[in-house]
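[audit] Reproducing an earlier prediction to check determinism. Same input, same settings, fresh worker. If the C-alpha cells differ from the archived copy the diff job will pick it up downstream; this log only records the rerun itself.
[audit] input (286 residues):
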Amino acid sequence: MDQNLTELITRIAEALDRLAPKAPPPITLDGADAFVWHPNPPAHLAPVVKVSRVDIGLLKGVDQQKSILLENTLRFARGLPANNTMLWGARGMGKSSLVKATHAAANLESPGCLALIEIHREDIRTLPDLLNVLRAQPRRCLILCDDLSFEKEDSDYKALKSVLDGGIEGRPENVLFYATSNRRHLMPRDMIENERATAIHASEATEEKVSLSDRFGLWLGFHNCDQPTYFAMLEGYAADLKLPISTEDLRAHAVEWSMTRGARSGRVAWQCIQDIAGKLGVKATA
C-alpha cells in the first residue's frame, strides 16, 4: 500500500510540474540597442531590431536644442553626470526624433554603450518596476516616454514625481529619463487648479504647478517653424534621398502641402517628402 501511494503521489507531482508555467527568463539588455518595456506578466523588454529614426544632421530648426541634448546624452554615455530632460512644445517639431537621433549618435561614438528603452504612457505607473530591473544591469540606459501628459483624476504623475527626484533608493546611476510632451507642465489647467485647491498656503499652490516639471533638470522648448526653416527641412530630406527635383519645384510643392495641412513642422515636411518621393518612384523610409 505504501509503495502504491508513493508512486501515485510521484505521478501527481510530475504531472503538476508539467502543467506549471515555466519560469520567465531573466531580463537582460543583450542583442539590441533599443527595447520596449512590457510590464504585463511576465514583464520583459522586447528588443527593437531597427529603430525608426532620422539622422541627427537632418533635424533642422532645432540647433540649440540639438546641441544641449546631444551634450547631455554623450556625458551620460561616458559615465559622467547628466540630467533628466523634458522636451516640450509644438507638435511635429522633432522632439522624439531628436532623442532617438542622440541615442544613435552616442552609440556611433562608442558602439553598444547606451540602450534606449521606450515606456508607453499608459505604463508609466510601472516605472519603479522598470528601474528596479535596470538597477542591476551593467549597461547604461536611456528611458524615453513619448507624448507624456496627465489628465484629470490621473494619479500616475505622483509615481513619476517620486521616481525622478525622490524615494529612498533614488534614480539608478545607470539610468536617465527623457520625456516628450506638448504641455510644458504636463498637467491640464483644471488638474493644476485641483492641486492648488488642496494646498494649505498660497506658495504651495504656486509650487505645485511646476513641481513635476521641476524634477527634470533640463527643459527644452520646441516652437513652430517659419517658412525658411520649413524649406531647409524639405531640402535636407530631398538631398539625403537624392530626389530628382529642382529646388523651385520642391518649394512650390512644399508651400501647397503646408497650406493643405494648415501647419509647417518637421513632421509635415517629412510627410511632404513621402508624397514627392512616391510620385517620383523613390523609396523613402525613416
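[audit] rerun output stored. Observation attached for the diff report: DSSP finds ten helices and seven strands in the chain.
[audit] end
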